[in-house]
Amino acid sequence: MFTWLNKQGVQSDRGFIVQRTGRFTAEYREGDKVVTLDVESGLSGGMPCIILDPKAFVRWDDGSAITGHQQAQLFENVREAMEFQGMKMVVEEGESPAG
Asked: Which residue in 20, 47, 57, 75 has the fewest CB atoms around it within 10 Å?
């Protein structure tokens, strides 16, 4: 179950928070661990969505690695948080900043 923190963030009763922090950024928080996410907004199937890179959850912001199993769970957690907010989550490779 989720509760709204504000217009851009929700908290799960399972202990994680998904919070938009800017136009192109969001944070995933779990206890004292944080992953800063680069996100894009878009539409998928006529619904608003956020677009995440498949490598979004490779490391916590403190540099510690996130295992493959944990990464899958974090993506699932974000998907559930987005659905609660009436949005979809799309995972796709972003464009390289180098062009």
From this structure: 47
Question: Does the pLDDT value for residue 95 go beyond 60?
Answer: no
State how many domains the chain has: 1
Residue 98, domain member (yes or no): no
Determine, yes or no, domain membership for 96. no
On whether the CB atoms of residues 19 and 5 are closer than 8 A, the answer is yes
Residue entry with tokens 């690695």:
65
Q: Does residue 72 fall inside a structural domain?
A: yes
Residue 99 lies in a domain: no
Radius of gyration of the chain (CA): 13
What residue has token string 């928080």? 29
Burial class (CB in 10 A: 0-12, 13-18, 19+), 94: middle
